[in-house]
């Protein structure tokens, strides 16, 4: 006797609207209606968030603060207060938890929720999303946008369609038509480089991508070609993960003055101490998982980001080993010696189960 198929998955992606800036406007009525930029002023600062009034001038998150000031000279700059933002985020998570335990946070201001089965017994995922948005508005005086769809990537795309303070639903029978006209860059993992490669094939929309044979995509892009084909059809089987395992532990710092590569060693060793302390805390809470890869992150004075990593035969077992490997990774940076750097970061990644780590070390030993 065969078991009945599981019910179709129902996923909600909830995204708070201009979160940090909205918290500031809520808490200081004099900021309401004004272009608010959450950032420290100065040449080395970047924008954490921008209100919708500031976005009309082209101000965006992660933009250098000096550029934001040029685009919007009348902007009100407010230094970030992450303690307050985390407190509001906790409020919102508690609202989510009334409806489902399957919550996958992406950041302080957004999360996936699997509402295939809910605690409340509401009849549809749409009703659940509306109830969540109403509770957020009532209890935090903030707004959230939501997307409802059969999987995560579709729900995330959908949540952008009615921003701010909106809801967009993609039902299973609407998936292909919904995706067809979208720019291919809306698909997860398709960045500017991949967009350019696809454009060379005459592919600019998801519909164009769907028209290509999967064999051609695999020939050009390997396994990623198969993934592109599945995304073009709206297929994504990744579940909502309520407890996402740690992927990387890192520490980074932006310098007051740009430095040459040869001047970075003391800063790399200082940041390695922070990263190793974080790793030891992770070990205390999850002793069965070990990191095997050392990562060095750099950002040049013109905001170009580079990462270099190494997975040695024997995993790093001390702060000294972590710091030494991170310093050695500078040799893999193939930029002119005169290049200056504004940021450096050190991290540990490649987490595996302890027994798996031991087996891999035996293999390479």
UniProtKB/TrEMBL annotation:
What are its cofactors? Mg(2+)
Family annotation (Gene3D superfamilies):
3.30.70.270, 3.40.1170.60, 5' to 3' exonuclease, C-terminal subdomain, DNA polymerase, Y-family, little finger domain
* GO molecular function per UniProt: damaged DNA binding; DNA-directed DNA polymerase activity; magnesium ion binding
Signal sequence annotation:
none
Give Gene Ontology CC terms.
cytosol
Q: Where in this chain does the entry annotate a coiled-coil region? A: none
Q: Which residues form the UmuC domain?
A: 11-191
Main location per UniProt?
cytoplasm
Q: Where does Mg(2+) bind?
A: 15, 109
Classification via CDD domains: PolY_Pol_IV_kappa
Which InterPro entries has this protein been placed in?
DNA/RNA_pol_sf, DNA_pol_Y-fam_lit_finger_sf, DNA_pol_Y-fam_little_finger, DNA_polymerase-Y, DNApol_IV, IMS_HHH_1, Rev_trsase/Diguanyl_cyclase, UmuC
What are its E.C. numbers? 2.7.7.7
Active site at: 110
User: Which residues does the UniProt site feature Substrate discrimination point to?
Assistant: 20
Single GO BP term:
DNA repair
The answer on whether this UniProt entry bears the keyword Nucleotide-binding reads no
**Is the keyword Cell membrane assigned to this protein?**
no
The domain of life is Bacteria
Supply the enzyme class, top level: transferase
Family, as annotated: Belongs to the DNA polymerase type-Y family.
General function of this protein = Poorly processive, error-prone DNA polymerase involved in untargeted mutagenesis. Copies undamaged DNA at stalled replication forks, which arise in vivo from mismatched or misaligned primer ends. These misaligned primers can be extended by PolIV. Exhibits no 3'-5' exonuclease (proofreading) activity. May be involved in translesional synthesis, in conjunction with the beta clamp from PolIII.
Per UniProt, subunit arrangement is: Monomer.
Q: NCBIfam families of this UniProt entry?
A: PRK02406.1
Q: What is this protein called?
A: DNA polymerase IV
